Amino acid sequence: MVRKAVVSSYFNSCVEASVNSRPAMTKIASAGKTKCFTKQILTMKEYPNIMQTKEFELAKQVEMELNSYSFNPRVFAASIPMMHPTNQQSLYRLIRECLRVMADESRHYDDRNNASHHEAKAIMDFLKDNEKSIPMI
User: What is the rounded CA–CA span in Å between residue 17 and residue 39?
Assistant: First the structure.
């Protein structure tokens, strides 16, 4: 849980700075923190307590698993048909929301995630004309 505390401390200081004043954001950016992280936090104003949500906890767990060299996305995807159909729908809604975030032009992208950003944008362009309501059944 030390890792969580470090992430929590960093995240809270950036949120505090982004909410309180622009000079504080500049101070954080010039202290070695990336401007893109501060900019991303500014887009999360509607989630002021995001770190206390079950969704944030899940995102951090997913991040830990994805960071493992033994994680196989194809095995994960092959497991989806074994989920309850309602949960499959919920997973798809989650994936679609993830794509929206990854396609967002207001975020900073470097060479590591530029390709996924462009692909997510293309998918979102397709969904503009073809998006369906995914029912919660």
Answer: 11
Residue 100 has what pLDDT? Answer: 95
Q: What pTM did the predictor assign? A: 0.66
CB atoms within 10 A of CB 63: 10
33 class by beta-carbon count within 10 Å (0-12 exposed, 13-18 middle, 19+ buried): middle
3-state secondary structure of 113: coil
DSSP-based three-state secondary structure for 1: coil
3-state secondary structure of 32: coil
Residue type, 124: M
Q: What percent of the chain has pLDDT over 90?
A: 58
Give the chain's mean pLDDT. Answer: 77
- The per-residue pLDDT for range 6-41, each reduced to its tens digit, is 444 444 444 444 333 333 333 334 444 444 444 454
The answer to whether 17 and 27 are in contact (CB under 8 A) is yes
Structure tokens that stand for 8 in this block: 């929590």
Output the DSSP codes for 43-109: TTTT-TTGGGSHHHHHHHHHHHHHTSTT--HHHHHHHGGGS-HHHHHHHHHHHHHHHHHHH-TTS--
